[in-house]
User: What shape does this take?
Amino acid sequence: MLIIIFLLIFSGFSWGYANFIGHGYTSCINCHFNPFGNGQLTDYGRAVSATAISSRTFYPKSWDEEKIAYTSGFLFRQPKQKLIRTQINYRGFSLVTNPGSSSNEEREWINMQFDARMALRFGEKQQFLFAADYGKVPIPSELTEGESDQEYRSRNLYLGYRLNSKFGLYAGLMDKVYGLRVIEHIAFSRINPQITQNDQTYGVAGHFLDGEWEGGVHAFVGNYYQDPDYRMKGASAMLEKTIFSTHRVGASFLNSKNDYLTLTSYAVHGRFNLKEGSSLLAELGQTEKSPEEDSSITTARYGLLQTYLRPFRGFYVLANIEYLKNDISSRDYIVRWGPGLQYFPIQRIELRADIYDTRNIISNTSIKDSWMYLIQTHIWL
Amino acid sequence: MELSRPLSKSTAVFLDFLSWQQEAEIKSGNAKSSIIVTNRAVCAGGSLGRNFLTYRSFVDGCFVYGLGNAGSEKRAITYDQSDISIYGAKASIGISKFVSPSNAEIGFKLPVMLTHQHLTEPKNTKLTTPNPLLVMASLYSRWPIEQWFIQTEFSKFIENDLVLFSVGAGYNF
Assistant: This one.
């Protein structure tokens, strides 16, 4: 009963996956230990994943929502201590590129993520946090310059201090504070500003949440899994405002550099609550890249439109629409489009299928679309 | 949450941005190659629909105007052409389900599109132009924001593996 009351009282304040604004959750902080989203779930986040996000089809009919929430903990019950929380994640998918092609269809199974996470909360008001994870990551078949080939690594390793409900300070290895943290690490909106799956950085981040306003600033010195000359150092900031009580609009800025490249990125974004789990996400941004060897600047423009429609609990129909112009002075651009299905049959299991059609609009010729199918399995404890 | 609503009519106007690909074929002597034509266009039109308890049935139509680029797949025959105008019309019947109290919808459409586009035929070649009549099956969704809405389509042509996608905005009366 206490869990249900807690959920009802605080239902306006939380969540993680950016599209879950469709459930009325505008901020990430109550469901994730990281106030900007991503990473390990809090007890509240686990309970919401079981009672609002996932289907209840496979739970016994005799179980009410309170019982379901009670079993959402790591050991299938609520922990009896407040100090430590753990989580184990596995994400793997079957990837098919150029399906149907007799000459260059490729199929592979990728173990995308397999890690263990821990969060320690301590202090009189649990105002201190230590979060860490460690696990196995896939090594790209072709490494970019400076990219680490370490198969086992940490993506989160930080200390946090919550001064009060409004302000928090976090120091260590984290994702950069910028833009929408959509799940798809291949999204143009994540690749261009370099905020994708292995772009975590050591730094200090400040977070504030006050009524309709939320934001963060982040100063960072690079990812120590990279060679020193490739580490991107700089700063970023993000600001969001709640509008019409349920939607969020925001803006982000990022500037970073290493010995070879200066990168500046800026974007506006929106997260719109269409109610009952349905939502719409949008981001439009530009990235300026300047190599150190000369003074030229190449400006790329990217856009993202993601829609999530929930016909019934646990099931989402997605549409993913992306745009990329690698050089705004050129007429050429890329559009990537595709529907997807996401199903949470029960808490701790996510099944997802996506189709990606990538179309190159080239000013003086035309090439056939390239295709990708993904079928993803995500299991967590 | 009850999603039923009384029987009523819906009328809207919209402007969509479309992109689709078509295939042509070019022959020169014993060599032949397919030509990929990538089109991008706008489609301005309207829709009429009937809202039932939990779903909506509708018809829509729009006028298409845009430009396309063409390129041969096999470079044994080099064919490149840009900014080829294309115009026509697109009409659909569809049905969608309301999935939220804000009337967000997902559904299916059967669009038919008739277009005219002239590809230049170089000397000593024979060009087979794409079929001007395209029949598709589409996954459709719409998200209302007050009287306005955003809509998307992801369509596969019945006769081949090429696709059309569109995103647009409209206004409900």
Observations:
- Chain B touches chain A at residues 1, 19, 21, 35-38, 40, 68-71, 73, 80, 82, 97, 99-102, 104-106, 139, 141, 143, 145, 150, 152, 154, 161-163, 165, 167 (CB under 8 Å).
